[in-house]
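user: At home tonight, take the chain set out below, taking as long as you need, and be ready to discuss the fold:
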Amino acid sequence: MSDLKKYLDKQLADPAFAEEYEKQRPEYEAIRAMIAARLDSNMTQKELAEKTGIRQSNLSRIENGTCSPTVETLSRIAAGLGKQLKIEFY
């Protein structure tokens, strides 16, 4: 088990931390999915910016979690990656 996983498991034992972690999980999952799709497409942020018309700096902010994208922005990113955006409730 990695040190990060051990640390996270320890932090998740705190109910307040666990609650906040769960609140932010959907956003982090979306970020991870976006990064994975971009990397699977062997595309740099610059290349994705050129395909989508979204500035590379904005893509960077989305990927590092300092900016929350709209559904429209996520749709443009998906299209730039040759994919479709799918949002699920489960």
In short: Helices lie at 3-12, 15-40, 45-52, 56-63, 71-80.
